[in-house]
Design brief:
Number of helices: 0
Number of strands: 12
Structural class: mainly beta
CATH class: Mainly Beta
Distance between the termini: 42 Å
Oligomer: single chain
Helix content: under 10%
Largest sheet: 3 strands, antiparallel
Shape: globular
Amino acid sequence: MTETHIIKETGNKGKGLYSTKKYGKGNIVLFLEGNYFSEPTRTSIQVGEKHIESWEGGHVNHHCVPNTKVVVEQGEFNLMHFLVAIKDIEIGQQITFDYETNETEMAEPFKCRCHGRWIRGKGQ
């Protein structure tokens, strides 16, 4: 099986998840699998009413003009959670999503590097 992502230093904000293959708009980039919690953590991703701790997902950074979005979809037996490309992603690009599109409340709000505004979650 070929690795499709790597975790590496971003150079300015810790680590990030980077693509090792091309994705077209609409492609599933990452299935979110892990443990579920009722409260957000620093690295969890909100999926519906719960928060999932996914190893790779925990390294996906925020961007105001992201290249993926979080999708929650009913599968045959349970809910499936994944990141879908909202634009083409090239090899070597960092995978990002806009935290304020799905996070109701951030465990650790932060000042966005894009515009200097605080990212607190869409419910704040």
